[in-house]
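Researcher: For the record, we're logging two predictions in this thread. I'll number them. Prediction 1 follows.
Model: Prediction 1, sequence and structure:
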Amino acid sequence: MNDMHGLTGLTNFRLARRGFAMTGLISGLTLATTRVEAQAIKTDLAGIEAGEFQLAVPGGSLPGYFARPVGAGPFPIVLVNEEIFGVHEYIKDTCRRFAKAGYLAVAVEVYARLIDFTKVSDVPTIIREAVSKAPDATLMADLDAAAAWAAANKGDANRLATTGFCRGGRATWLYAAHNPKLKAAVAYYGPVVGQTSDIQPKTATDIAGDLKAPLLALYGAKDTGIKVEDVQAAIAKAKAAGKTVELVVYPEAGHGFHADYRPSYNADAAADGFKRTIAWFKAHGA
């Protein structure tokens, strides 16, 4: 089975029901590991507005979440790419954090076509039935649709950025090579190597030389699933092609260091990473 290199070390959990064309997102936090609710950041709605929406895509609609400042806009856009655990409270809160910083943040449930999580209780099944069966071409089209939705809802299409976590970090690498209108990208601990397939034909390393936007890579030295030397090789390939890239490795952080609802959370690395993310976006036109 394709182990989706970089996703090792996750423990069993169960998610709330959702499916293609469903009406809403998961409420609360998922149980990727032991819940750490006291540690979770909770961002209020003061000065911002947020909520769910439905993104029209071929064959139906995907549920999504947005957060943006109160006002007429247009606001710079950031597409937030989820982990493999759904657009749950952590991802929603991350969108609200971006809204507090002046962005229209949008996160879409890209696996809603593929799996009913009420029938799934283990990560290997989610990887096999959803993550490994999600075509990269469809993912890129979904992100394009999300960017278009944002532009029609008080977003500035000329100031488009993206970020993502874990598998969403891989999506960030791919989207940075896909969309020539993208201004900036920040990938948090996204796998850069691994097995490919007909529907997922290239790794992040494969497309590193094709980046169309400046990319900041944030990784943990203690990540047991992603080797720092592999990320360094991807960065070197991008630089050899004349691309604007930067790698930051946090010595004391492991995989999922930004995920404040899990024991992997590293508050110092997460705070520094978010600060660098905003600075990277602004420095490159988003």
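Researcher: Logged. Prediction 2.
Model: Prediction 2, sequence and structure:
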Amino acid sequence: MTDGDLVPRLPDHAVETITAFLRSHCLYHGNEGAVLGLSGGVDSALVARLARDALGAEKILGISMPDTAYPRDLARETDQYAHALGIEYRTVGIEKIESAYRTTLPDVKDRVTVGNTKARIRMTVLYALARDRRRVVLGTGNKSELLLGYFTKHGDGGVDLLPIGDLYKTEVWELSAQLNLPRAVRERAPSAGLWEGQTDEEELGLAYRELDRILYGLERGLAEEEIAARTRQPIERVRQYAQRVVAYRHKRRSAPIPKIGARTVGVDWDP
């Protein structure tokens, strides 16, 4: 094995698998389509495209949920992208809701806490509109974010389906290029948009192209020392991200329940 093979490679069957997944979950059991948030980033743009192709434009509702810091140019670009896809599109500003939270809890000023509140407001909007239309909520989280816990619990992590949840960020970029998504979307610095100037890679401390190699090594069960050698990353850094994957697993699981009865929901009873 060489250093070069420790890189996630987009499987040939990815689009086919995601298409079948979306059709099986979004058009059965009374469901009539899907709703998703459009942020202007590559993840949401890719999910919107995949959902449109799988289900048909008439069954997709894309929602932009800007706050006061959301750039107007990005809003126009997102609007243009949704119209190019041919899907239904709606803008729901969250400024007033966010302001109400700040007024109600004036002592809550921590930047991350306030940012998480924005994410939870947005998810509340998505579910309100999804229920009204008998649709499911599509999340836009990718595998890198899920493993690193880089999402808001009960915010962008609180969804019905995660169509690209088994694609690393680098695979998201690869598939977006294959599908010819707009260059501006593909090349924009990844950001959760929780505060002005925020970027994923600055917060995570390493570029996704390097992070994904570490995570891919962990997925393949390689020892941390081997991952460090093959990625040319310090062993301390590899251990840091390996520990983070474990530390944030609570975000990827349902709330724990103490075992008391004969059968317990989520433990040994899934009716």
